[in-house]
Amino acid sequence: MEEKDLIRKAQKGDSLALSTLLQQNYSFLVKYLMKVTLHPQLAEDLAQETMMKCIEKIQLYNGKSMFSSWLMTIATNLYIDQQRRKKREKNYHDQEQALRKMKWQAGVMNEEWSDVVDALASLQVDIRMPIVLKHYYGYSYEEIGKMMGIAEGTVKSRVSNGLKNLRRELTERE
């Protein structure tokens, strides 16, 4: 069954269709959140929270964007909200431990990826997120702006400046 049909059925209350939709998009969403949060457990938690929000708000999906983009927008907003709440509570030790774990996992797969994770971790989340959305997922500046609730020009600026910082960081590591 096509995604459009599943969405239509889910919006009419078909829980099996909704379950299928969520299952089809879950791993994609978790991978996106891992790149944004750099924290595997937080990525899992946010993915589950996103799925719950989707279940509550499936009626609001209007089909103007891909369903996965809609989920990413929800996830992005949940993450931004959480970061605002926890801004003052940031625990450096926990973040470092999670980053070490992720680098170790990445190191097992590919040593270069570990360097990229390190460099991404050096960026603020509001800079890292547009870079991940643009260069890992191929979203346009306009789509990223809508997802993050910022102007397209701001997205371009953040991506450009963030990439300069990444290049500098990766060059220093060589």
TrEMBL record:
Database matches in Gene3D superfamilies: 1.10.1740.10, Winged helix-like DNA-binding domain superfamily/Winged helix DNA-binding domain
Domain RNA polymerase sigma-70 region: 21-88
Keywords recorded for this protein, A-Z: Sigma factor, Transcription, Transcription regulation
The organism's taxonomic lineage, starting at the top: Bacteria, Bacillati, Bacillota, Bacilli, Bacillales
Record PANTHER family: RNA POLYMERASE ECF-TYPE SIGMA FACTO, RNA POLYMERASE SIGMA FACTOR SIGV
Family (UniProt): Belongs to the sigma-70 factor family. ECF subfamily.
Keyword Transcription appears in the UniProt entry: yes
GO function terms (MF aspect): DNA binding; sigma factor activity
InterPro entries: RNA_pol_sigma-70-like (IPR039425), RNA_pol_sigma-70_dom (IPR014284), RNA_pol_sigma70_r2 (IPR007627), RNA_pol_sigma70_r4_t2 (IPR013249), RNA_pol_sigma_r2 (IPR013325), RNA_pol_sigma_r3/r4-like (IPR013324), WH-like_DNA-bd_sf (IPR036388)
Name this protein carries in UniProt: RNA polymerase sigma factor SigY
Gene Ontology BP terms: DNA-templated transcription initiation
Keyword Nucleotide-binding recorded: no
Gene behind the chain: sigY
Positions of the RNA polymerase sigma factor 70 region 4 type domain: 116-166
One Pfam family it belongs to: Sigma70_r4_2
